[in-house]
Amino acid sequence: DVKVTQSSRYLVKRTGEKVFLECVQDMDHENMFWYRQDPGLGLRLIYFSYDVKMKEKGDIPEGYSVSREKKERFSLILESASTNQTSMYLCASSFSTGTDEQYFGPGTRLTVT
Amino acid sequence: QQQVKQSPQSLIVQKGGISIINCAYENTAFDYFPWYQQFPGKGPALLIAIRPDVSEKKEGRFTISFNKSAKQFSLHIMDSQPGDSATYFCAAPQFDSWGKLQFGAGTQVVVTP
Fold first, then answer.
1. What distances in angstroms separate CA B76 from CA A2, B12, B46, B65, B66, one per listed residue?
2. A80, A97, A112: which is closest to A13 by C-alpha?
3. Measured distance CA(A3)–CA(A7) in Å, rounded
């Protein structure tokens, strides 16, 4: 079974803190994604990585950065957390092409106070 | 970025009834339209997908219908069961980037006993 794991299920941080969300996949997938899920807005892509050290901005990259030093690991970084970044964050991975299934992790519920 | 418009936002259906969710897209690089299903506390998971040159795909009680000229596709859940209660997301390939999907806002389906 493909497994995508995220470092935390729940996280509470203060405004201005630097926040790291980690994601690991065990299927040697080329592509990895970070999404943000908010009610009524669906899944919005923050960043996409198609290879180690390669990344592409998604629809809402402002306030976020990413790191992919190893194929299996993709990190989302909130440089200075703000209350409007309170959300559910989902990581996903897929093999390589646009028609390959995306496998999602369970999500991290981040609250910024 | 292309938009994928999904409706309705929520749906209540009796057990045994038919659930219908509709999506409309603007442009895609290729015809591939997946539907993802998400249960509370879980990440989304691929439910069913339709690929080029096919106007309908059926898997068990789930059917995707695709109308290329209208740029619309829909999910039909026949004989809806309480276990189908979940949030459903449609998606379409992003026009300008291989590997990325644009997701709809989601439809929360509740099947009453």
1. 27, 14, 15, 8, 11
2. A112
3. 13
Interface test with B, best of A6, A30, A35, A43 (most B CBs within 10 A): A43
The end-to-end CA distance of chain B, in Å, is 40
Per-residue pLDDT tens over the stretch A84-112: 999 999 999 999 777 789 999 999 999 99
CB B110 within 8 A of CB B10: yes
Tokens of B49: 């997908």
| C-alpha torsion angle, residues B54, B56, B61, B62 (rounded to 10) | 80
pLDDT tens-place string over residues A28-44: 999 999 999 999 899 99
Q: State percent of chain B over pLDDT 70.
A: 96
Supply the DSSP symbol for A101: P
First to last CA, chain A: 37
Average pLDDT over residues A74-82: 97
Residue type, B98: W
B10-14 and B107-112 beta bridge pairing: parallel
Contact A106 B104 (CB under 8 A): no
Strands A10-13 and A108-112: parallel
Best of B97, B100, B102 to disrupt the A interface by mutation (most A CBs within 10 Å)?
B100
